[in-house]
Amino acid sequence: MEKQKGPPVPTGVALRDVRRQLFEAADRILLRDGPSGLTSRAVTAEAGCAKGVLHKHFEDFDAFLADFVLDRVERLAPEAAALESRKGTGTVAGNVTTALAAVFGSVAVAIVALITFRDELRARLRDTLPAGVPVLTEAAEMLAAYLAAERDLGRLPAGAEVEVLAAMLIGTGHLLYADRTGQPPAEETVHRMVSSVLHSSSA
Which stretches are labeled DNA-binding (predicted)? Predict the structure, then answer.
């Protein structure tokens, strides 16, 4: 007797689900083992997928990694919206401290290490993100937009160079969070750094 086939799974839905599984597996491997542990075999094993699944959906492993990085860049959008919604409330230093914890408390630091680790990945990302370091560049743009809004509200000096301040905050924040194997910096440490950088705008 011929076996009855179930209803077809929409291709788009299936692909989104596979991408999510593989990307989340890559997150876990990066955070646990670092860039050197991130291989196609490790990703499929972590995701509980057959070995050929990744190459069925992506041209090669670097194509997978490029999509993975771009997906994580897009995940900054909710953080940007949350930060924008806090303008004019609380303190500027407190809001920035919360934003930095959200950015660097995620997989962002490990992704920067991954981009540095793989030459081919950097080359592929240049087609879509021609300038700066993915994730860090977008995070700096997010902070600059927020600081500009606070400057317009008079909560930062009128002459504050928000792009410079944002770059300083992201660069110094990255240094504070860079050791993925250790404990993240205390909130007070990050807040003190943020306050110092913001204070420089009024010097």
Answer: 39-58
Nearest-angstrom CA–CA distance, 133 and 21: 25
Distance CA 60, CA 58 (A): 5
CA angle 51, 110, 125 (to 5 degrees): 75
pTM, two decimals, is 0.79
Whole-number Å distance between alpha carbons of 26 and 40: 9
Q: Specify whether 123 is located in the same domain as 196.
A: yes
Contact 112, 140 (CB under 8 A): no
From 200, 194, 199, select the one nearest 97 (Cα to Cα). Answer: 194
Q: Is 63 inside any structural domain?
A: no
- Tell me, yes or no, whether 173 lies in a domain: yes
- 80-107 residue pLDDT tens: 899 999 999 999 999 999 999 988 877 7
- 36 in the same domain as 128: no
- 5 belongs to a structural domain: no
Question: Distance (Å, rounded) from C-alpha 43 to C-alpha 20?
Answer: 12
Q: Provide mean pLDDT across the span 185-195.
A: 95
First-residue to last-residue Cα distance in the chain: 83
* pLDDT bucket at 44, cuts 50 / 70 / 90: very high
One domain for residues 94 and 126 = yes
